[in-house]
Each structure stands twice: as C-alpha cells, then as structure tokens.
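Folding problem:
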Amino acid sequence: MTDPSRHGVLRVVLAGDLDFASNAETAAKLAAALESGVDVEVDLSDVRFMDSDAIGVLLRARRLAVDRGRRLQITQMSESVRYVFALMGLTELMTGR
C-alpha cells in the first residue's frame, strides 16, 4: 500500500494469482486500506489470473467502500483481468470508465 497523503487516496497493488488460496489475504489488504478512511485505488496490472471468488472479494470491498462514503476503484489491470471484467460486465462499475 502507498501513502494516503497523496490526494487522499490509498493505492493497493495486487499481483500474481487472485484465487481461493489468496482471497483471505486480498480481502484483508482491501479492508485495511478502507480502514484508512480515504478512497482506495487498486492496481491489478500484475495479476495473472483471477477466479470468481476473487471478483466477489473486490465487489464486497467496493460495497464496503460505498457504505462508508468512500470509493474503491480499479485503476490499472492486466489484459487477463480486463477480459474477465469485460466478460462479466464489470468494467464500468469497477473502473468508473
């Protein structure tokens, strides 16, 4: 995670495979970032694989952010993540674009 003093945004970088084996750690990282009280940007540019459970983790984190009056936004993503988001119709919801 990076310093939230940069425009009131905390950047979280996730990498590798986001799947059943890593989902608890991913959820904990995102929850900790949201505890900081600022908006959260998530960089998925180094994610090779993402399963449906990992998508659920991101969606739950986004909901938690919204419930707290914050924003969680995907700012970078690998081609494989871009494909999965497009296939599931999540690109606009998760990136704001």
